Every structure is written in C-alpha cells, then in structure tokens.
Amino acid sequence: MARSLLTFSTFLLWCSSFAQTGNSFLTHFSPSDERIDYHSNGMVQDGRGLIYFSNKKGVLEFDGKNWQLIATPGAVYTLSILQEEVYVGGVFGFGVLVQKGSQRVYQSIFSQPVFSSAVSKDHVYACSEKSLFAVSAGKIDFEITAEPSSLFAGLIEAFETIFVKVEDQTLLQLKNNLLVKAEVALPATSELIFCSTYSITGNLIIGTELGEVYLMSPKSPAAPLKFNDAGFVKQNVLVAGVWINEHQVALGTLLGGVILVDTNTGVTIDHLDFSTGLPDNEVFALMPDHSGGVWVAHEYGFTRIAPTLPFKSYNHFPGLNGNLLCVQSVNGQTYVGTTTGLYRLAKELSVATKSIEVIQNSQPRRKSLFGFLRKKEVTKTKSSKPTYESKIIKHLGYAYKKVAGIEGKIIQLIEIKEKLIASGLAGVFEVDEGKARSIAGGPVRTIFFSTALQQLLIGTSQNQVKTLARSASGWIETNLLDTLADQINYAFEDNLDNVWLCGRTAVYRLETIDGKITDASVFPIANPSLDEMVGVAYGNEVYLAASEKFKIFDHKNSFIRYDSLPGPHRYFASAGYFWFNDGSKWRTVDKRLKSVNLEWLGLFPNLRFLAPAENSQSLWVITANNELYKFSNSVNSNDDVHYPLVLRQVKGQDINITKGKRVTLEQPENELSFDFIQPDYVSSYAMQYRYQVKGLSNTWTSWSNTNHIASFPFLPPGNYQIAIQSRDLLGNESKIETIPFEVLPPYWKRWWFYALEFLFFGILVFLSVKLTVANSKYRYLSEILSLLTVIIFIQFISTIINSIIVVKSSPVVQFFIQVVIALLVFPIELYFRKFMQAAALGKYQIRLWRNKSITN
Known about the structure:
The chain is mainly β.
C-alpha cells in the first residue's frame, strides 16, 4: 500500500551533483531455479568470499556462479558468521551449517524460534521473544530470560557490546552475562531499525524509524548525519544502512531505492532506483562485501552496486531511445547516436509531484525490522483518518534531448575542428549547440576526415565516394573521387599521408602531396566471407582485418598474412580506432591508448562500440546489451580483492577434504570430478582456471573458464596430487591450491586380499600334501594347488612392491617385471616340489618298510 501513496508524474532527477559522472556499475543476480523464492531479509559473507542469503526454504549459498540451497526446517530470519561458521536462526530455532561429506547441512543447537542474532567477540547471540542465548563452538554457553511482562524486539552490536531492544523501546546492554540498562548513549528519539559498524574504524551508522541517520564513533557520541537528501530519505521510508568505506555510506529505502552519501560533505554520490538500473525501488536489506561493493536484496533477486568500479553508466538518463550505436564528446557536450536519431545530454529542470499520506504530522511509517513478530500492534482509531498532502518539487538534473533536424539511424560521429559531424541513413549533418544542418543527403556507410586532403570523405550506400571541403559559406562538394565505384566501409590514413579506402574485396591507396592526390593504387584482398574490411596504420606499417585474418602491407604492392597477432574472433573500427578480440580480451595496437588498462574490457565479452574520451584517458563503451558506460582509468577500484580458491564438491565420492591432508579414495566406479571455484561477483564468466594432476600428467591444462572442474572418467590406483590455479580478467593469478589424494585399488587387488588367498591356498597345499602322502592318487591335485599358491604368492609380492615403489611404465614393462618376480619366487616353488616329493618318498619308504616287516 505504501507504494500506492507515492506516484511520480515525471522522472525525478533530484540531485545534480552526481548526474554527469554517471551511475555506479550494477550486476544483477538471481537463482536460476524458479522454485526458489528471492525474498531475503539478511545477507552475510564469510572469509572465503561466499555469500549466504536468508530464505523461506533455508539458506542460499552463492559463489558468483553457483547457487546452492541449504535446506532448513522452516523460514530463516537471521544469519551470523563467527569464526567462519554460519549460524542460522528462524521459526525452527537456531543452529549452524556443518560440512557432511561434500555437502553443507543444517545442524540444530536449540529449537526455540529466533528472529535476531549478532556477533560480539567469541560468541554469537541469538534472540527470541523471551530469551537471549549466547552460543559458541556450536553449543549454548548461557541463557538470559526476559521479564514476564517484556518481550525482546531484536539485537544490536555496537563497540563489541550486545544491546537488546525491548518492545517498549527501552534498550538493555549485556554486561557480565547480565542485562542492564544501556550505558552507551545510542539515539533514543525513536526506535532503532539498524546499526552498522565499519570494521576498520569501529564507527557506527544508526538509522531510526523516523528516517533519522546518526554517526557515532568509539570516542564521540551519536550525532545526526547532515546530508543533502535527508528529506528524500524520510519521505521514502528508511529501512537499511551500511558503510561502503570510511567516508561513504549506503542508505536503502522502502520506496526510493538506494542512495550513496559522502559522510564528510553530505553530498549524494549516487542514486540507484528503477530508473537507473535497480530492478525495484523497494529495498529489503543491504550488505557491504569485502571488495567495496554493496548488495541490495529486492523483490527480483539481488543487485551488487560497485561504486569503485571504473565504469559509470550513462544510458539511464531519461530521453534516450533506440539501440545505442555511437557516442562522442565535443566541447564538453555528450552526443549519442541511436537507431532513432541523435541525442544530447543536457541539463533539465524536472518536476515531480508526490502524494504523501500525512497522519498526525508525520510521514508514512514502516514497521520496525522485527515488527511482524510482535503480539501487540498499534491500530489507528476511527478519528485518525489519513490526510494527503501534494508536493511539487523542482530539481535541476540531466536528460537526453533529441537533436532537431535528424530523423533516422545515426551510425557514426566524428569531430572536425570542434564541430560534430553525424552520419547515418538520413545523410551527413553538422551539429552545433544541439542543432543539426544537413551537408550531404542519402544513406551513408562511413565518413572520414582526411588531414592530408583537408576534406571529408563520404562512402555512400550507392557505392559512391563523395568528397567535401569546408568553405566560408559551408561545405562544398569537390568531386575528387567521383569515378570510384565500390562499397567503401572504412577509411584511414598512414604516416606518409596516404589515404586508404577499404572496399569489399579490394583496398585503395591514394598518395597525396601538399593536399593533392598524386597517384592511386588498387590491391585485391581475399575476403571470402565478405566481412566489412577495416584497417589501421601503426608506425610505418599498414594492417588490415578481414575474414578473421590479419594482413600486413609488405611494401611490395601486396598484403600478406600477418601471424604475429592472433586471428581476431571479433573486430570493429570506431572513432578512428581499431579494436579486436583475440578470444580472451579486447586489444588495440594504437599507442594513444597505452595508458588505459584495457584488461577491464573483459567484463564485456561482446562490445558494439568503443571510443576514447577526455584526451584518451577514458573510453566510451557501448555493449551488446545496449548499455553505455564511461570507463575511467583514474578510478581507484577495490574490486580487485582476491578471494581464495574454494573446493565446492567432489563428485563420484562422498568424502571430507581437509586442507593439507592426504585423502584416500576408493577407486570410483563412475567419473570422479573436483569442482573448484574462486568467488567473483564482477566477472565470474571471465575467470579462467587451469589444473595439473601430478602422478597422471606433468603438464598444465590451458586457461579456460570451464577448467574449474577437473574430471577423470577413470583413475588407476596410485598416489596423485591435483593442483589448480585461477586467473581473473586483469590477469592476476591466484595461489596454487593442491590436494594430495590416493586412489585405492579394488579390494580384490590389495595386498591383504592376496595374503588371504595365499594363506587359503597354502592351507589347501598343506592338506593336499597330507592327502598325497596318504594316497598317491591325490598327487596331481596337490601339484595344481601348489601351482596356484605360487601364482598367488607372486601376485602378493608384486602388490607389495607396487605399493612401495611406484613405477610408471607400459604393460610390456610390467610384464617383464612380473617375470622377474616369478624368477625370484622360483626357488620357493622348487622348495615346495622337493618338500612334496620328499614327503611322498618318505611315506613310500615307511610303507615299504612296514610291508617288509609284515612279510618277515
């Protein structure tokens, strides 16, 4: 209902101090399983970088790429982390997530419903309506019960002290395992709805139900935060607040999205809402991560705000229509060409009309964070009918204005002597102060201003090349190339003042001296796929790109294959620069952009347009998703924090793996795989992995986004060590993580099984000897059993040797090893034979002696 009370007649640009710098980079996340509800009121991040979200069905675990739902007996209200253990509270009670095999499961500590928790020093504290529990090491240390007439309303941690909110708005403090009246002077004007600590300084940001925001440090009392948009926060109902860094905070509202505020100046750094890319204005919860980002929980999932990332969004200002194709800055003015025309970013006075429900001279209120658990609710009396107050607010902001006089697609923008030239399907136009004047009609493929000729070259869709020169009265056609008939898609100049024109299957070179064309040459180019050919002059060399191949001019009137650069998977030319993707990152050979860290462009696997801005110190970027960003090298990013590699799971074996300890595995009947991940919430798809399995191979796999899973359809018995490493989009390589493991052979191939077989057949041999002595007809049976025993003994000795000495060899070598062992065991076989023969001969002599005695 609160949403219905706030209507906007026009888009509200309510702060001009940040508008022209663009909006912060946003990344959106949501589980792919539609059965998982997105609603979450709590988020925490552990030391490994994994993020946990409270959920109706349990705890959602996220590593930047994979979602996992850890089921609990009911809805989760609160999450806390103590010593890398995740504690969970909800309608089912309170417990901890523990590792069971390759999965994490919920383990209960007690069953009393818990709606709030907090961590202080070496304990996690859980709060129910009537009790406060102190938990450590997975068990309850002590419990404090509320007064019979009181109900606990939530927990606050401040300055390593636990405070308990009571329903009557009193505040208690935990001291010496007892609850006493709060000794720290926290704001008491209205009920506290959040209290967030900045871990480095210990400073607090505190929010109240009335929309007031306070700052507090360990050395100074709470003081109101004075910021420009305090009224906006109150009107849109404050619900959450967190620190971004030492001097910046993020404030979330129920109706107006999130604002980022500088606590030193009170200036609003950024405002993120539906109009600037946030999926919903209603904020459920906020959380700062370890990389300087802010997570927002909303109705449609989760959004990460990256205020320190060197990309600022420029496509969310109102007025911009169509698919974005090009952008150019001229004299401090920003122009964007789209499929519907040309637009200029300009200041605009915006008007917003708000209808606000007013009750007893206060703004609409939101219930406190845990108000849904209260038994007593404040109800309106019949006499307190709501009244409505309409407010008209005027603000100076920015918006895109369509340039008059241009109708149709604009595909190219260039600057000529501080004048903007725009070209597209409607022709070529000169733009000045937001007004366009036509200088050439008809659809255009490309335009290029030749400094050697001081003329504008226009490649038309009618396969003509027009040339125009500027005069005092305007542009006049010179007809220098009116005899050239080809589909010219691109033009450029080299260091010798030669002009190169790229056609479909040929390149034209115009040699110039003193502004005049002295010679023209044609060079056929193999272009079987009929790609739009582009070129670039770098130093004294001229390069072409066509049909996914690079060619270089050999100065012998021909272009030859150039193999020093990888074949471009994707390439394009824009604003006089040539760009190509080599399969892993975007590159250019232009020296003017050497100061720009182009590795960041790996965030966007598919780009539509790139152009330098501000003397090549920054870049305009248009992505295939129709997003416009300004990339600045001057921004100091904290998003390069590196989380460790995490072993997610082992498929094919249900085992626990402890870092640094050898793991013993049964030989898997199915595929065995180790699934690693390095948490990354900026460019998880750009993260690359490689691995090596010592004992199986001495080489590393190639870097790939899919090599975080090491799969083995079959592993022979033996000792192995898997080593894995990751590399982010900036080229930073992680520490190599290793897991030693041993694959045991099947039980029938182990030494103890052969020993049992040897013992078994040995007993049979012994019995057979006895039988042979008793009766000569069992002689052959005894020899067969002896032979089997010798064979088993050979296998037994071979198994023991292989378990002690690991020999990497072919089956042929293994056969000869078996022969050597057999030869070594051969004396034992001879001994058995002699023993059996001696026993039989002895028995025969005894029998012969007995017969002789009887005869005598």
